[in-house]
Amino acid sequence: MQNTVSAEAYVDVRLHVNGTVQALHVDSRVTLLDALRDELALTGTKKGCDQGACGACTVLADGKRVLSCLTLAAQCEGREVTTIEGLAADGRLHPVQEAFIRHDGFQCGYCTPGQIMSAVALLQEGRAGSDEEIREFMSGNLCRCGAYPNIVAAIREVAGRGSE
Ligand code: FES
Ligand code: FES
């Protein structure tokens, strides 16, 4: 009987994750999400739907949001991947992380890493000009706990629009 996973299905991938180069030997079909969680023990990135519908797995690749459950690890060769573990610098939380805490932008916390990564990108893209805009550009990140008003308040504050 033919083996359905041949040795040729494995590839060497050099991932740049949170400023560190990681050399992996993985099945070419492994998603970035599984590579982060299972190979690199970066479990801050969450697996929700595993099919591109919830946003829990959002990370940044070259500063842009990607759904890591829909991205192959092998596609990220040479790209700069940032996960929730890579946001804090010099022992200080990222301003978006601090704002989520201040505004209670989470309850169970499962969606929170994806929400925060999306929020960081949204702010960099200049998409936080109004609450409507924030809601629109955060619409790919679902929260079963319904923390949306607090999430919007946190992003609004970091965008410099205070607590309207
Ligand atoms: S786990 Fe990737 S979008 Fe839901
Ligand atoms: S805080 Fe629970 S799913 Fe968003």
Write structural notes for this entry.
The chain has 164 residues and is α+β, with helices and mostly antiparallel strands. It has 2 domains: 9-86, Roll (Ubiquitin-like (UB roll)), CATH 3.10.20.30; 95-158, [2Fe-2S]-binding domain (DNA polymerase, domain 1). The protein is 29% helix and 16% strand. It has 5 helices and 5 strands, in the order ββαβββαααα. It has helices at 32-39, 95-102, 112-124, 131-137, 148-158, and strands spanning 10-17, 20-27, 58-61, 64-67, 80-82. Strands 2-1-5-3-4 form a 5-stranded mixed β-sheet, with helices on both faces. Residues 106-112, 143-145, 147 line the site of one FE2/S2 (inorganic) cluster (FES).
Provide a quick synopsis of the model:
The chain folds into two domains: 9-86, Roll (Ubiquitin-like (UB roll)); 95-158, [2Fe-2S]-binding domain (DNA polymerase, domain 1), CATH 1.10.150.120. It contains five helices and five strands. It has helices spanning 32-39, 95-102, 112-124, 131-137, 148-158; strands at residues 10-17, 20-27, 58-61, 64-67, 80-82.
List the helices and strands and how they pair.
Elements: E1 10-17, E2 20-27, H1 32-39, E3 58-61, E4 64-67, E5 80-82, H2 95-102, H3 112-124, H4 131-137, H5 148-158
Parallel strand pairs: 1-5
Antiparallel strand pairs: 1-2, 3-4, 3-5
Helix pairs in contact: 2-5
Bound molecules: FE2/S2 (inorganic) cluster (2 copies).
The site of one FE2/S2 (inorganic) cluster has 11 residues, from loops.
